[in-house]
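agent> fetching stored inputs for the S-adenosylmethionine docking request
agent> found them:
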Amino acid sequence: MDHTSDHTPAVHTPRDPRDIQDLWDQRYAGAENLWSGQPNATLVAELEGMRPGRILDVGCGEGADALWLAAHGWDVTALDVSQVALNRASERGDALGLQVRWLHAGLAEAELAPGSFDVVSAQYPALLRTDDAAAERALIDAVAPNGVLLVVHHSLPSVEQAAAHGFHPEGYVSPADVAARLDDSWTVEIDEIRPRHVSTGAGAHHTEDVVLRARRQP
Ligand SMILES: C[S@@+](CC[C@H](N)C(=O)[O-])C[C@H]1O[C@@H](n2cnc3c(N)ncnc32)[C@H](O)[C@@H]1O
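agent> prediction call returned; pasting tokens
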């Protein structure tokens, strides 16, 4: 799958939710398949073997993670700001006979019920940083007691390398931004950089993941 430097909202980073939606819709419309079509390795590594429950896939894109989760017994809500991506994802789900709740919304605008997911997964979600940390708070608030928050992003290039792609990494929510907002009702289980091996799709050039996994107290 993914990701950021070559696909993320770039140069003049949009702030208005409609502009963000338009940008991502255009990006998806410009490719038959933007990402690899395979579930993200970190998602699989972290959730394989866990008892399935309610999971929120934030920025689900073309749905490879959501469909893998549904196939493994999870009750999946998959949210994305791009209707083009969701159409593609739901068509694949229908073809596979898999049930997923596809939700067209920006994370901060979705008004998710607090504590309503056993796992919240955000895999390279490209969420804009805002002064009120709306995205970070929405991710954290959606996790149920004893639930898990899994945030994965690329290990970002230098500011100079990113600028060469017209991308400003400081404009986007990182796993560290989320970790910084976890209070003492959370345990950070994993906070590390891992090698990443993806050979197809627009994110194939990224070779490292930043992985945050945290659990809310029961
Ligand atoms: C880099 S892609 C990652 C897609 C998918 N998670 C994957 O790993 O292939 C980022 C996704 O986040 C979505 N996105 C961007 N801003 C969003 C927001 N505020 N709320 C929900 N989704 C958003 C984009 O439409 C895009 O599908």
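agent> quick read of the result: The beta strands are 54-58, 75-80, 101-104, 117-123, 143-154, 186-195, 208-216.
agent> awaiting further instructions
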